[in-house]
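Justification of computing resources. Each target in the renewal requires a structure prediction run like the one illustrated here; the chain below, 297 residues long, is used simply to show the kind of job we budget for.
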Amino acid sequence: MEAFPAFFPLSGRRVVIAGEGEGAEAKARLLAGSPATVERVTGAAALAPDAYAGAALAFIASPNADFCEAASLAARGAGVPTNVADHPELSDFHTPAIIDRGQMVAAIGTAGAAPIVAALVRAELEAKLPAGLGRLVELFGKLRAETRAALPDLAQRRAFLRAMMGGVVAEAAEAGDLETAERLMRAALAEGVVTLGVVWLIQTPEARDLISLRAARALAEADTLVLGHGVATDVAVLGRRDAPRRTLAETDAGFLADEAAQGRQTAVVADLDALTDLALALGGKARHHMLVPAPDA
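Resulting structure tokens:
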């Protein structure tokens, strides 16, 4: 990971955009819907450190390279993280391609090396993310304290929220009916919904691009990863970084059934023979699904 991605809170903050031209206008459009106070500065005023004092971020854009260098020196001299359009060598951070869903923001970056690639990836993801996803995130944030109180166990809470993302609560949020979505989610919390765990048995693919979308999602959502011998690193990396990992050799059906009973999702990646043995051992002890690689086209 050449660049570390981070998010800067903008509510109540001041952001300075220095310069003129299409680059500066693009930054202004980017920040138009944010809760930040956006201040535009041009000309000689943009070359003084006082113009940036106290700002959370500074964006500099101009066709004049000398202006960009002088303005970046002023902004960085004021201790403000600075981005200079088309000049990564003058920047403290790079502007990623952004998917904006309100409180749900996704960013794709290439450390300034190939912005067009980030834009293409963004376009692919943009089409797959529901327009109302931000409203659902807003609801989860509003009921976060209540959800934590009702479900103090992290795995149970994750399983509950996964269920909310795929049911009537998500449908109401997508339709823009947050009042109904909130009522339904509160009702689910009050009823003490039992979240059933599941064991995903994923056959090791010969290459990562042969793994099915369902298997990739199971890996990304799993609370625990169990890896058989020879599982490729580029497959294991699809799992959450904070998910505990264990070997297949130290895992049996009893452990998997216990994880499922606690509402956890466990992804086991191994060869077909090992998965078949596990499936037989699990029997009716835990809900489990076998996932095999997509056929090689």
